[in-house]
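User: Ferrous iron transport protein B, Kosmotoga pacifica:
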Amino acid sequence: SKYTSVALLGNPNVGKTSLFNALTGARQYVANWPGVTVEKRVGTMFYGDRAFRIIDLPGTYTLGVTSVDEKVARDYLLYESPDLVVVVTDAVNLERSLYLLLQVLELRGNVILAVNSIDEAKKAGIKVDRRELSKHLGIPVVLTSAFTGEGIEELKEAMLKISRSGIHVHYLFPKHIEELILKLSESLKLKSELRNFDVRWLSIKLLERDKEIIELAGIDPGVDYSEDIANARYKFIKELLKDSYRDSKKHYWDFN
Ligand code: GDP
Ligand code: K
Ligand code: MG
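Assistant: Predicted structure for Ferrous iron transport protein B:
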């Protein structure tokens, strides 16, 4: 297609729609997602020599299926597979926002992290080291404020750059889980009906005992590693923030 498709993904209330408005201006319309009453916002952005089709996804905390909003967001990522995903997070509550980011990184590449509400964070005495975050995550990171306009140009620039080159990263789980993922991936690769899916992502979901994926894959590993996988993500987030996030009023680990 002549458009680069972009999904804005993030927790509720982090500023997705505000960024969407900043990127698309008046070039947008509202429809409904098929079969549900969740609003679907679609807009267009022209930047550099490219046209971008931007989707403002419903707010979600995980890539699970526990709510209609979550399912809409997850199905869009899985089945429509946009060219580019911008994960929008709230600089004031960065730790909370990062769990979803890791799930997206397990699923796919071409991801940008937008740390939004940076204006509010500065007022609250919070420092975010964009370079450290980017180095640890292996993806572009932009500090934005949909309120003051800070970082919007950099975000567009990062989108343009990825739409031209593309990147792919996976962060790694502990060895015993990676071994299970590898084993499951080998069996999943043999199933021709799953050829359009990322077998690594399917394997992680099987180990998390995701009902929908167990049914889809026709494999039940019979074990539940959801806790180990969640713990691995939290550990990764702690390490990440140790080097990149400073809150003058509290330590980053005093989360809530
Ligand atoms: P969404 O639920 O992720 O789509 O978030 P919204 O775009 O609706 O924004 C949620 C609230 O945060 C609104 O009150 C916005 O005005 C506010 N907000 C969004 N972005 C920023 C920002 O960069 N800075 C500040 N200070 N407030 C913001
Ligand atoms: K907010
Ligand atoms: Mg919104």
